[in-house]
Design brief:
Length: 141
């Protein structure tokens, strides 16, 4: 059976913890890989390709990252024919329309403005858990 997995590329520890908590509440198992910048994210993906391990089904990507930001990562990802079809959700504090249009042009599956309601992780649409319950269920189940 194929194992569901998510690659989270995020440099904020609190956001990483929030994603971990939300994933733990799903009714299906989902493995989480974390990277703190785009270069680390690409390294994880390339290691998986080299070892023939399954690629993550979803990438959650912060825009503002050190070393390689989210847009740079997304361009690299989409340029690689082996990685270009992975679903990517941009999760960022930037409400800038240029950022949104650039991300959409690079084929993101969704663009989420932080902060989602991290404190009330109920099943509201604007909660992290609500996001995972809705989107990951559609993708993995």
């Amino acid at each position: 059976m194929k194992k569901n997995s998510v690659l989270l590329i995020e440099d904020d520890e609190l956001d990483v913890i929030s994603v971990q908590r939300s994933l733990s509440k799903l009714e299906f198992e989902c493995e989480l890989y974390t990277a703190f910048n785009g270069l680390e994210g690409l390294n994880i993906l390339n290691e998986k390709l080299a070892s023939n391990d399954p690629l993550p089904g979803v990438i959650i990507l912060d825009l503002n990252l050190p070393r390689m930001n989210g847009m740079e990562f997304l361009r690299e990802l989409r340029a690689d024919k082996r990685l270009k079809d992975i679903k990517v959700f941009m999760m960022t504090t930037s409400g800038d329309e240029t950022d949104r249009k650039t991300a959409e042009g690079l084929g993101v599956s969704g663009y989420l403005i932080k902060p989602l309601n991290f404190n009330n992780n109920g099943k509201r649409k604007d909660s992290m858990e609500g996001f995972f319950q809705f989107h990951l269920r559609k993708i993995f189940i």
